[in-house]
Description:
- The protein is α+β, with helices and mostly antiparallel strands.
- The chain folds into four domains: 1-19 and 360-473, Immunoglobulins (Immunoglobulin-like); 41-127, Transthyretin/hydroxyisourate hydrolase domain (Immunoglobulin-like, Sandwich), CATH 2.60.40.180; 133-297 and 322-355, TIM Barrel (Alpha-Beta Barrel); 476-528.
- Helices cover 22% and strands 30% of the residues.
- It contains ten helices and 30 strands.
- Strand 15, helix 6 (283-289) and strand 16 (294-296) form a beta-alpha-beta unit.
- Helix 6 packs across helix 10 and helix 9 (476-496) runs antiparallel to helix 10.
- It is globular and about 80 Å long.
- The relative contact order is 0.13.
- Mean pLDDT is 92; it is low at 1-35.
Amino acid sequence: MLTLRQRTRPNDRSVSLRMTRCVTVILLAVVVQSTGFAGESRMLTVTIQDSATKEPVPALIRVTDSEGRPLVLNGLFKRQNGWFSIASGTAVELPRQPLTLEGVRGIESLIARESITANQMDVKIQIVRFANLREEGWQAGNTHLHLNRLSRTEAENYLRLVPDSDGLDLVYLSHLRRIPDESSYVSNAIVEDDWSGRALEKLSTNRVLLRPGEEHRHNFGRGGEGFGHVMLLEIPRMIRPVSIGPGIMRSGSDSQPVRKGMKEAIEAGGTVVWCHNTFGFEDIPNWLAGTIHAQNIFDGGSRGTYDESFYRYLNLGLHVPFSTGTDWFIDDFSRVYVPGTGSVVSKKWLSQLRQGRSMITNGPLLRFHANGRPAGHVFASDGSLQITVAASGAGRDDFGALQLIWNGAVYATAKTTRDHQGVFQAELKETLTVEEPGWLAVRAQPMSGNNAFGKPLFAHMSPVYMEINGKRVFKPETAIELITAMEEGLQAVREKAVFATSDEDESVVRVYRDGIKRLRAMLKEHEAR
């Protein structure tokens, strides 16, 4: 139980970000080829500079007319909500009329605005940071990215420009298969060339490291829910089959669980990240078996809930590092920060992620310590624990409030205020006496607003853990729910799967059977205490 300023709060587990049940939404980033301007145009040279370092940097710009309508910018990579990625010094074709130009870089800077006269031929944008997490010892990564329907040259230019314009430090470009669509998956060829000839290393810069990965997966039908999707990161070779079953590959059988490929990746020193929230039947048994290192949410949209993605596992006593990415193209500011200094090193970055020292966000920037310890720390005691939480949040967009979460429920809230720069901030300090096992984390208030791309805001720190008398938190009602979910997943497999041999059948079914057995044993042990 909690004492010392305990307060009654509604359980906020049902409040979270959601999206449609679409399996894969392909948001096509394109190089726009025509403006459609009526009348005379001019070329405006846009120079972008970091106000602190005076260094030229790529960024995002949006140009609007006198009525606030965004213009299409010829030759630039189109993003979301009227924004385009641009390198400093690029000349942009614009109509000869008064315009407003906005510039921003990632989520750590303010939006700069400049009025452009009808005859103006150049403009300088100063990018003003309100935070610099790289200097604070954090590195931002996107764990899930594919590119589609671009030429090889366009894709390489995209990778050189877009992650840098968003202020990312590390991006995992991943290989995947789906017949017949894969003929246009240009990222596949780049990843294959990296494994054989270090293609991504050649595209990396001193600001952004690009690394290869693989999305290992299974679906019943082209987009129907199946065994699940996992990212295999920092693997030395491709794990085959990349995609399993006739639902994706148009031939063969549902021959193996995704766990087989996950184990191969782990044996090769790779990191396994579950994709797409709870999509897929194998997530629960694999978390119970310890074959997943981190959990993605909102990779490819905002489908899902914190309760489904993280809290239900945490409430079984599992340690769950939080992660995220964007899937098809970088269509949001989604990223996962982990501690890191100096040049980004993929294996070191992934080690921090696996230890749960992470923050996921597409806008608000959070800080969180419990008794001075960071996310991922485990507190162990033979009696009660006194924990002082110090947390803060800052963002360009209003994230509503900073919330302290205890075992999935909101324990304390600090509402945002706006400072003289226009930055939204919140601070929270709470002292708790913890007398039972559990976990603590902080997050931005869900459903609080949208970012500059028009996407629902989210931010969440991975938790710290409290073990009392050698015991972790265990909620029997959660265990019962997940046993039922695994039984339903097993039933779906029996109804939908096609196996060529009894060995294939057994290899898949055993995953669920073992998970159910393991969780029933945990439940029995809890009831015997």
